[in-house]
Amino acid sequence: MTLRIGMIGPGGMGKAHIERIHTVISGGRVVAVSDVNPDNAKAVAEQIDGTAYATSAELINSPDVDAIMIASYGPAHKPDVIAAIEAGKYVFCEKPLAPTAAECEEIMAAEQKAGKKLVTVGFMRRFDASYREMKKILDDGEVGEALMVHCAHRNPTVPEMYTWDMAINDTAIHEIDTMRWLLGEEFVSARVDKPKKTSLRFEHLQDPLVLILTSESGVRVDDEVFVNCQYGYDIQCELVAEQGVVRLGDQELVHRADKLGRRNRLTMDHNQRFGQAFVTEVQEWITAVSQDRHTGSDSWDGYAAAVVCDAGVAALTADGEVPITMIERPALYA
Amino acid sequence: MTLRIGMIGPGGMGKAHIERIHTVISGGRVVAVSDVNPDNAKAVAEQIDGTAYATSAELINSPDVDAIMIASYGPAHKPDVIAAIEAGKYVFCEKPLAPTAAECEEIMAAEQKAGKKLVTVGFMRRFDASYREMKKILDDGEVGEALMVHCAHRNPTVPEMYTWDMAINDTAIHEIDTMRWLLGEEFVSARVDKPKKTSLRFEHLQDPLVLILTSESGVRVDDEVFVNCQYGYDIQCELVAEQGVVRLGDQELVHRADKLGRRNRLTMDHNQRFGQAFVTEVQEWITAVSQDRHTGSDSWDGYAAAVVCDAGVAALTADGEVPITMIERPALYA
Amino acid sequence: MTLRIGMIGPGGMGKAHIERIHTVISGGRVVAVSDVNPDNAKAVAEQIDGTAYATSAELINSPDVDAIMIASYGPAHKPDVIAAIEAGKYVFCEKPLAPTAAECEEIMAAEQKAGKKLVTVGFMRRFDASYREMKKILDDGEVGEALMVHCAHRNPTVPEMYTWDMAINDTAIHEIDTMRWLLGEEFVSARVDKPKKTSLRFEHLQDPLVLILTSESGVRVDDEVFVNCQYGYDIQCELVAEQGVVRLGDQELVHRADKLGRRNRLTMDHNQRFGQAFVTEVQEWITAVSQDRHTGSDSWDGYAAAVVCDAGVAALTADGEVPITMIERPALYA
Amino acid sequence: MTLRIGMIGPGGMGKAHIERIHTVISGGRVVAVSDVNPDNAKAVAEQIDGTAYATSAELINSPDVDAIMIASYGPAHKPDVIAAIEAGKYVFCEKPLAPTAAECEEIMAAEQKAGKKLVTVGFMRRFDASYREMKKILDDGEVGEALMVHCAHRNPTVPEMYTWDMAINDTAIHEIDTMRWLLGEEFVSARVDKPKKTSLRFEHLQDPLVLILTSESGVRVDDEVFVNCQYGYDIQCELVAEQGVVRLGDQELVHRADKLGRRNRLTMDHNQRFGQAFVTEVQEWITAVSQDRHTGSDSWDGYAAAVVCDAGVAALTADGEVPITMIERPALYA
Ligand SMILES: [Mg+2]
Ligand SMILES: [Mg+2]
Ligand SMILES: [Mg+2]
Ligand SMILES: [Mg+2]
């Protein structure tokens, strides 16, 4: 009755998923682990009283594993996702599904061959209660049609290894997926604006930057990416529609008044801000898989994010807009 | 490894607990049911593929049941709680622990004889993230000592069967427990003020009323109980301390601006407002019991709530303050 | 065309009124000054290029003075107010109208003899845009009838000379007047609750305290008076009505997010918080007087405040409620 | 001692200024009027008991007029402003100073010849308490250097005669001036993005649009102009700086909770939102002029706004960025 999960590549995110599954989520258990570093696999397996497999292929094909979670390095995702599909097992793959659109297409080909959606991509914001409420208000027609969305993605700081393209591929990718989901349409062009740089960053980085996306119907999304804003992990989103605007709430637990003013604490990282979204995401996946249902983002979402990210990265050095072209959407993902 | 739980008296609250345990909580499963109405026991048992017991005593003493949850009618709690204690099993009992202080004393006597805290009373607000943040700020000394707390407990409406004493025993009891926990001290007196009555209520009811409690150290707590406020389920709490004040946040998921102004939705009942607190409460209980640890409110908390409620009810018709006297706190609950 | 105003007793408040009248208010000018300290009168007169009078009586009766403002010490108010009435001149008297109800009655007697409302008492909150909006919502019937009002009057600190009765006579008097005006009825009883004292105060003072007033129709007003709250000048007011609640807004000019959280500055004194209300108050008075109209609080309001303050002071040492009895309201003030 | 003001072209804005000056502003009086429509001049003059002049030139040169206010149609401004300068009189000119940069240059030439700043342009937001607080925080270095500003300028609706260029020349011009003032630098390029159009507008209009400006130091300002947003007059501004962000506050007088949620009213037009800013603007001008001082926006500000508006209008139909080139700043405006 308990879903037996095999975890591939448990680093920080994978271990956090294990912790969640074992302490605050119903219906699943991580029973198997594999890792490019066998010592890590062994250590994690020991902690959870599970089995360490020598290779991800063995783990995927083990009869003792019902479903797969992939938390390895992005470039390693493709073969494991495809192997899981070929084994007929549901697979939860952390974002990105794969670093290139071409790899995502291969995954979709395998999935279409299997004739069934098995892949869920780990875009957790779709599970955040505030974003969900925003989408519900929009979908219920309470504010008319969407015209614009103003997003901001702010992190206190990033380390020196954070390079320019990561602003798109690792940071803005969250807004890219969330906006596709919120609006229910694809993007057709990307542009990047480069404001004055903060002095509080490593020299090589353009920070902040603004990614501007246009959707099929013309909705304009701007996403301020500012990863050295110093003050907090601050995720803003304001939907501007024909008859009203909707913003994410303040996420404040309490507010206080003291000598520093009337104030509330800000979250400092994505675990604080989206901790509950991660729990809901994995819970809904385990529940769905246990009932042989797909849930959450699918391979097409992974592909679309990859395509938009490619355009966004191109826009970093392009002059003006970069068009976004996608393959036709396969029927499986209609 | 999964905690096997026996549920006594599954009405609305009990069924909600079962639903939570089976869908979004880790480590437990309700496997047994009993009810004064055997048909209800049978129906619920069937739904969860569990066993219906003819009596609560049989359920409690079954070797197939590790821990007990009691969600029956308050007056029925005592014998079951004591039976669970005598069986050496952890028991989660919905509030009130028992309707009278005398019964709570009997429970404490049994528990002291067992020499171990086994009873948890279902006061869920202690598990609400906002109240917890407030308590942390106070306990960390960030605002100095508490001097006053202003509470409001507002419900949209109540049915005709809601009587005056229920304003204390069913409604204000939440603030009574939460304030004891927040302040870490007992109350020594209660008074009830009776404002102008709303016309939008059944004739027999004093609504709103204000319960005023004084703690051992002199902290003054006022609790506005207004159960026909029409507009929402609105739980307010403002802690006034020596160097600052702390309030519960707005609990808004999003806010919007439209023709009705800048606004956010209000919760309409305790399940909406405290849904996550209920989950956390039961999760923490299952986790603790699985590790043979007590967690949450204990029998002393149940006793103290009963005593303060008695004083509150007396204050409904008394002129002025009603003193609150408790027995000496047994060492087990120190 | 310019209203020629004579100012009696220009201390801090009087000078602030002069400054306002001469720099940001239309239609008036302070042309004459008197003071128990003739040097002060001379100094102020010189600054404004006006005339210093040896006595307030001479100032009041001067043909060069159209209207009177009294900003002297409260115990000195009565004879000057009466002299102004007898001279047939409009008079703006800072609160309190007079320290005792008996003196206020003498003033009302003089005014009734004059047959015309000439006296305005300086209760500036009636001119605050937020309180006015609250009153408009109530008067327009948008939230049904008022049932309770929760007020808080918090100051950062007070000096050692601030005595207990001043918590009523100087501090709570603002809520007393504002609530009479908001609710449109009189209070019939007063009680004072004494919470735990802050350690950050002079030893002789009960701080905070809570004044509880009941109106004719049963509306319950509580007013937390906390004059050493450390963190700001924080005026709170929440009206609880049958179909909704209304609170004063945050008064924030901007809010910011930085390392201290998401926050806005608090006002630190009544000039910051009610600066615009003072301007509006005096502007409306000058405009009205120039048109031979009365405006603002009248002598009855001054009397009623004095009676309620007396009860409040009695309640400081009384056990329980102190009844409030007023004379019948003269027709002039109907 | 009272500043005698001559008003040219009193339409809606001019009459509002007269009303303010005569009822809530100190130190000035409108004593003379002229208008292209002599009947209007006569009617207004009668109301204020002043003199109607046949031409603006006569009004400007009258010895009975100390200072000039121009509230006529923008294309008519230039000759009157120059005449006032040549008469050596201070002149308050409603925005725009003149519709073209060339005309503004003529005005600056005249003013330089006069050797003294005499012209104030009516950009009232510089006098809004919230914008001023934002600027103070920035200028005080509390949040580091400015990097970006996100603005929104939303109106409920506009009439059919509102054309596309007005979105820049009449609407965005406010942000153009306010951002120049806030940042203390000039803009070097403009671009316009065209989101999906709202269906709730006249067909000919692109609404909303986003104007993007870049300053000399690289600060990026985006200004969402949405003049048929339906729900209110909503002016948003968020300054993103190196160490924190600052936003305009909510401008709420009260907030309430009722069946529609927790909410506060929005302002519905610029008079509601900026009513006090208008008063402060005119008061400060009258006070300054009475002391022979210049205050507020000067001719250079009027010129710069015109140049940026020209670029903004060009950007409406251009592909990509339009560069902004200004003449060298004359020493008089340094
Ligand atoms: Mg994720
Ligand atoms: Mg409970
Ligand atoms: Mg006053
Ligand atoms: Mg203007």
From TrEMBL, chains A, B, C, D:
Name used for this protein in its record: Inositol 2-dehydrogenase
Top-level EC class: oxidoreductase
Encoding gene, per UniProt annotation: iolG
UniProt-listed InterPro entries: Gfo-Idh-MocA_inositol_DH, Gfo/Idh/MocA-like_OxRdtase_N, GFO_IDH_MocA-like_dom, MI/DCI_dehydrogenase, NAD(P)-bd_dom_sf
EC annotation from Swiss-Prot or TrEMBL: 1.1.1.18
Function, as annotated: Involved in the oxidation of myo-inositol (MI) to 2-keto-myo-inositol (2KMI or 2-inosose).
Organism from which the protein derives: Tessaracoccus lapidicaptus
Xref: Pfam families: GFO_IDH_MocA, GFO_IDH_MocA_C3
SUPFAM superfamilies assigned to the protein according to its UniProt record, in alphabetical order: Glyceraldehyde-3-phosphate dehydrogenase-like, C-terminal domain (SSF55347), NAD(P)-binding Rossmann-fold domains (SSF51735)
GO biological process: inositol catabolic process
Reactions catalysed, as given in the entry: myo-inositol + NAD(+) = scyllo-inosose + NADH + H(+)
Subunit structure: Homotetramer.
Annotated GO MF terms: inositol 2-dehydrogenase (NAD+) activity; nucleotide binding
Family label: Belongs to the Gfo/Idh/MocA family.
